[in-house]
Amino acid sequence: MARIIVISDPHLSPTHGFFWDNWCRTCEMVNQLAPDAVIVSGDLCINGPDSDAEVAFARQALGRLTAPVHAVPGNHDVGDEPPGQDAGQIIDASRLQRWRSVFGADRFAFDAGGWRVLGINAQLLGSDLPQEEEQDAWLDRELGAAARPVLLALHKPLFLQSLAESEETERTVNPAPRARLLRRLRNAPVQVVLSGHLHCHRDVVREDRRHVWAPSTAFLVPEPADSSADNVLGILSIELSAEGVRVERIDVPGLVAYDLLELKGHGRYKYLRDMPACPPGS
Length: 282
Ligand SMILES: [Fe+2]
Ligand SMILES: [Fe+2]
Prior knowledge:
Elements: E1 2-7, H1 20-33, E2 37-40, H2 52-61, E3 69-71, H3 75-78, H4 93-103, E4 108-112, E5 115-119, H5 130-144, E6 150-154, H6 175-185, E7 190-195, E8 202-206, E9 209-213, E10 219-220, E11 235-241, E12 244-250, E13 258-259, H7 260-263
Parallel strand pairs: 1-2, 2-3, 5-6, 6-7, 7-9, 10-13
Antiparallel strand pairs: 1-11, 4-5, 8-9, 11-12
Helix pairs in contact: 2-4
The structure holds fe (ii) ion (2 copies).
């Protein structure tokens, strides 16, 4: 059996340190749990798409964790896939290169508890960048060679309610790239799809596959993306073995459940990056 801890959406920044204490509490707890590996499912930064310092800061912050760490980027790290939440921060070659030069890669693969664990860059899906094609080919190779159950991690969930939903929303992978990804997964032993981004926790099954939303360690959103989701902070423990998978949300003692609207002055500041600076520890 292998135990993986999932941390999502910590939203770290050297200039806007709202959630730094939450990050420190989270790392203490995860180190006590001593998992076999840690997955960080994106949004490590607040303004990663436009800040070298921020991406470097997030990479350095991972050094507080003692277990091997596998991270994939989110929209706050490399920019959104089009059309996106913020037209000024769409993923492009230089934003992707910034992440890759600091983190080494924007995807991962490792074995744990008799499973294959894969992570992909959700922000490439529908981006039309050459790196999207490259990632597709890599995923096809991985899935084609998978003789064991697979857990697939990415920042954005594939859907809100239904795999067939047709609306474009920045909350999920868009319908066209979702359909392409689902075709790739069709005959592959992918049993669990794990995502972040929505800052709430949900665990549902669609077409024999489990879709798990990892909660954030940073802040709650005003309205959870689904009324059945748990609007809570925390981390996930995932146990993988020949018998299957066990997923549990765990509270982290001392985390402060910041309210996004309150932080942004109830709309006075559109984005957290617009807020007056408040470095970690200030
Ligand atoms: Fe986030
Ligand atoms: Fe996100």
